[in-house]
Write a structure and sequence with these properties.
The chain is built from 3 helices and no strands. It is mainly α. It is globular and about 30 Å long. The relative contact order is 0.22. The mean pLDDT is 87. Its main location: membrane.
């Protein structure tokens, strides 16, 4: 569980930086966790497997970027 939170925090921070939205630590954590879930689901549907910590961070970051992009379009 702790590793999942760390991956979420890193992914959220990276996604916020890439998308140009600097946010608080808690918001980055939430974005990263949601991104990890969304990214994991999409990767599973596409048949992409993430091996190791770096692979999980990449998938979670891509999912978080997608979530931020969708959020911007909805607002």
């Amino acid at each position: 569980m702790l590793i999942f939170l760390v991956i979420g925090l890193i992914a959220g921070a990276l996604a916020s930086y890439i998308m140009g939205r600097q946010q608080d630590l808690l918001i980055n954590l939430l974005i990263g966790i949601i991104g990890a879930v969304v990214g994991g689901l999409l990767a599973g549907l596409l048949g992409i497997a993430a091996y190791g910590l770096i692979g999980q961070i990449i998938i979670a970051t891509l999912g978080a970027i997608l979530c931020l992009w969708v959020w911007r379009r909805m607002r």
